[in-house]
């Protein structure tokens, strides 16, 4: 079996010469791989990405292994940064600002490698209820825990959360230490979306990603405002399907570590980290099956029955090892600060430090371009968005960058 797989991979090596392969970004709901449609043409009204400046910001604040940045809703100009070991820091969006600790749960977080406190989502009603949700690796079990915390200080007081306010919403055992997913975000529908990886190991040994009876290898959608501790929203695609978990929104992921919603259109974009050859960006739709572990990006992985690619949702775009090693999904740019970028999807790579802007024509489904717009030193762990829609790059070495228009 191993020999056979190696032979197959060897045959695929010429495909790596193609830097970027594209699967299209059409919104017709057809789950199919498409012919590469990088057209290079520029329709009216589509973004025209140009090189960006990655400007170091908040250099006065010490961040230890930061893995996420987001805006604190209802608190004008307040940002939050997540540190992998289990700390959330908040600070004003200005140089020289001091950081306060919003939460410290390092006593219960297993951190290192792909484990740690790796996801944070503020409740849409945070200003009123003080709720926020985290995704972390529990110590010592290694299980993924999705928990809600409540801030204890009232309006006007310092923002802080008691570590004792934890309410565990969901706990998912993890067979291996890697591929824990991480992202948490509220969709435009008000439900909480959760990324879970395939459970780890090599090649998804238990084939979790295609198995609807496990939450591993999925993007989930839950309602944290109903049920105990949560409810499954009506309209989830696999409710009532035999043996299926109702939480599943989409399946066939290896490690969809970062995803985001386009704040203008509601589109759900995810970066799914590949095994050894292809890193992919997916446009995630309800009930979509993104192919792992039969497909890794646009290539076959373990597909002994030869199931056709047309049964699955192909990546919008995927790239090989010449460009990077671990994709980090970002955001569709909706800020006002960078001309010509509105509507482009920004994403990057943990290993190469490259940042790209992907332009899709959602009317025709064509991938128009994927342009390298910046390069940062250090390992990219995440992108982040402030309240205005400006985009940040978070680096494991403690540096936060804001993407800005290049001054010439
Ligand atoms: Ca895939």
Walkthrough of the structure:
An eight-stranded mixed sheet has the order 2-27-26-25-3-4-5-6, with no helix packed on it. A five-stranded antiparallel sheet has the order 1-20-17-16-15, with no helix packed on it. The chain starts with a helix and ends with a strand. With 408 residues, the chain is mainly β. The N terminus is likely disordered. The longest helix has 11 residues. The radius of gyration is 20 Å and the shape is globular. β26 and β27 form a beta hairpin. It is built from two helices and 27 strands. The chain has a single domain, classed as Neuraminidase. The protein binds calcium ion (CA). The site of calcium ion has 8 residues, from loops.
Observed structural traits:
408 residues, mainly beta, Neuraminidase, 5-stranded antiparallel sheet
Question: What's the gist of this structure?
Answer:
The protein has an 8-stranded mixed β-sheet with strand order 2-27-26-25-3-4-5-6, with no helix packed on it. A 5-stranded antiparallel β-sheet has the order 1-20-17-16-15, with no helix packed on it. Strands 7-8-9-10 form a 4-stranded antiparallel β-sheet, with no helix packed on it. 49% of the residues are buried. By secondary structure, it is mainly β.
């Amino acid at each position: 079996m191993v020999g056979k797989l190696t032979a197959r991979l060897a045959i695929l090596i010429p495909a790596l010469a193609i830097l970027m392969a594209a699967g299209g970004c059409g919104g017709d709901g057809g789950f199919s791989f498409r012919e590469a449609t990088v057209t290079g043409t520029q329709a009216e009204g589509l973004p025209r990405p140009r090189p960006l400046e990655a400007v170091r910001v908040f250099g006065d604040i010490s961040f230890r292994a930061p893995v996420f940045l987001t805006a604190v809703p209802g608190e004008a100009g307040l940002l939050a940064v997540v540190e992998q070991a289990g700390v959330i820091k908040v600070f004003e969006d200005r140089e020289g600002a001091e950081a306060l600790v919003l939460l410290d749960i390092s006593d219960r977080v297993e951190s290192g490698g792909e484990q740690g406190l790796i996801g944070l989502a503020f409740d849409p009603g945070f200003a009123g209820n003080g709720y926020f949700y985290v995704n972390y690796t529990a110590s010592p079990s290694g299980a993924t825990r999705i928990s809600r915390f409540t801030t204890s200080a009232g309006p006007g007081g310092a923002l802080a959360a008691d570590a004792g306010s934890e309410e565990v919403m969901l706990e998912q055992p993890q067979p291996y230490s890697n591929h824990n997913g991480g992202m948490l975000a509220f969709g435009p529908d008000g439900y909480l979306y959760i990324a879970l990886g395939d459970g780890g190991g090599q090649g998804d040994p238990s084939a979790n990603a295609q198995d609807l009876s496990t939450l591993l290898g999925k993007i989930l959608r839950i309602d944290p405002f109903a049920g105990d501790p949560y409810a499954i929203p009506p309209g989830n695609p696999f409710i009532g399907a035999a043996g299926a978990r109702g939480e599943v929104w989409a399946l066939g992921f290896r490690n969809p570590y970062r995803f985001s919603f386009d704040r203008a259109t509601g589109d759900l974009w995810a970066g799914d980290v590949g095994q050894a050859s292809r890193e992919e960006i997916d446009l995630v739709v309800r009930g979509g099956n993104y192919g792992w572990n039969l497909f890794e990006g646009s290539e076959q992985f373990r597909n002994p029955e030869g199931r056709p690619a047309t049964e699955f949702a192909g990546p919008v775009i995927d790239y090989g090892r010449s460009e990077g090693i671990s994709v980090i999904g970002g955001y569709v740019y909706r800020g006002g600060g960078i001309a010509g970028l509105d509507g482009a999807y920004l994403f990057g790579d943990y290993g190469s430090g490259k940042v790209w802007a992907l332009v899709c024509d959602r009317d025709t489904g064509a991938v128009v371009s994927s342009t390298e717009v910046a390069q940062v030193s250090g390992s990219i762990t995440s992108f982040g968005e402030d309240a205005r829609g400006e985009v940040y790059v978070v680096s494991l070495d403690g540096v936060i960058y804001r993407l800005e228009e290049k001054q010439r």
